[in-house]
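ingest -> validate -> predict -> emit
validate: passed (alphabet ok, no gaps, 186 aa)
predict: started
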Amino acid sequence: MTKIGIILGSTRPGRNGEAVARWVHEVAGQRTDAEFELVDLLDYKLPHLDEALPPSMGQYTQPHTLSWARKIASFDGFVIVTPEYNHSTSGALKNAIDFLYAEWNNKAVGFVSYGAAGGTRAVEHLRLIAGELQMADVRAQVALSLFTDFENFSVFKPSEFQRESLGTTLDQVVAWSQALAPLRAA
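emit:
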């Protein structure tokens, strides 16, 4: 069965992303077309990139890199939950992405973002990164506003139409993950 990782891309104390990622996982868990797993960057304790060789060489030496590589390699596609910090994604997420190369290749990725402008600028940057990593980013995305989808900017209460947007995003991620399977097998 197709396996999709839902990556929680914030490690900040008091992060809004935890509630968002749990919502994504809960909605995704009601589907029967794929298996979904929540992947929290906090569980991997990745320091700033500390591998001597470029990730494209695939010669990882650090135990934390090897653990992270095994986890990412186990998925067929991803939904990345990202905050928007200073018109981009979080440094922790960018660092986690930068640790690996081949483990991302030929996999689909969709985005659920949040912030004052819905996190859309963070997703713009992530789409460029995904292209370099040979990932297929899907068109649909969920953009959650701190003004309308959070109470007091911290209590997550998504609008009902956001659930529909999430459903479309998940549909596309699963379909593209399945379509890319022959490339991953090669």
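Residues 54 and 99 are 8 Å apart (CA to CA).
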